[in-house]
Amino acid sequence: METLFSVSHNKEINLGSGETVSNVYVRVYTSMFTSGLVAKMGANRFTTLMALASYMDEKGECYPTQIQLAEAIGVHKNTINKYINELLDFKIDGKHIVTRTKVNRGQGNISSYYKIHPLSQIAKFNGEIEPVNHKIGDELITDGSDESIPTNCDVITSTNNNQLNNNTDDLKVTNSNTAIKYFQKVYREVYNVDYTVSNYGREGKLMKDKLITPYPDMAKEIIDIAVRRYDELFKNQRYPRPSIAMFSWAANQIVPMVEEERKSAEQAEQSGLLEEEAEQAMLEKLSKLK
Q1: Final residue of a domain: which of 75, 103, 123?
Q2: Would you say residue 65 lies in a domain?
């Protein structure tokens, strides 16, 4: 089952203050969208569901107050009460995706405990989902057997614009479009999977500003090193694979490597020419002796 957002509990160090910051991420499966669940649910229910999910534990249970939920999505308390009731009434195949239990604590103090069910296509930590085996509208879309895709800044929804033209062997990198195509080609060769682009406008502008304009005669070589030597030079736990975003900082670091490779190639070529000249001179001498 594909995931749109990954789930983890990360501890990161603030390099400025030295403090350790913990972040928790909710896992949202793309089947929530491809099954038609979100479309059927509507924006208000979906926003409320995501606000609830930010509080849930591994079992899908949570108990935020209405004030907390209202503040989370920026609406009045009366409005969030309406949204919650609409979400609680919402069913797929006769099943609720969220249920609520009210507990009377006495003196008019009533607390609400919510349960987000696996059918919601949302999970946290080791929680699991209940696969949606049909598109809402009866069109079969998944059997729940697709593997989860590890998330990185370059793992994104594919569009028709992401279909890579196979005729890129002699591609000249002269603009942002050809730079993206060449990056995709090399990425495919190295990792044996397609690199897809979420926003051609944004990433194309990055290619133009950070690669094509400052280094027009080196762009192709910079891309080659960035992708082919990424594991050696830049790979880390947070960013295990290269992405177009890396050129915002990596291009300047790669330029000296390109210059060094060019210098080595030039020296090798000169050495080869000298060897050819020496060999030719020797042949000429031998010819004269005959």
Answers
A1: 123
A2: yes
Q: Are 244 and 180 in contact (CB under 8 A)?
A: yes
Q: Are residues 114 and 174 in the same domain?
A: no
Q: How far is it, in rounded angstroms, from Cα 40 to Cα 138?
A: 13
CB 119, CB 111: distance < 8 Å: no
| CA 103/CA 106 separation, integer angstroms | 9
Task: Say yes or no: 107 and 195 in one domain.
Answer: no
pLDDT band at 285 (very low <50, low <70, confident <90, very high): low
> Which one has a higher pLDDT value, 197 or 253?
253
Single-letter residue type at 233: L
Partners of 101 in beta bridges: 113
**How distant, in Å, are the alpha carbons of 211, 240, 271 from that of 251?**
7, 18, 30
Tokens of 243: 């992405």
- Would you say 255 and 215 are in contact if contact means Cβ atoms under 8 Å apart? yes
Which tokens hold the place of 198? 């979420």
Q: Is residue 148 part of a domain?
A: no
Structure tokens at 98: 């969220």
Instruction: Compute the distance between CA of residue 141 and CA of residue 122 in angstroms, rounded to an integer.
Output: 18
Report pLDDT digits (tens) over 78-104. Answer: 899 999 999 999 998 889 999 999 887
145-172 pLDDT, tens digit each: 333 333 333 333 333 444 444 444 567 8
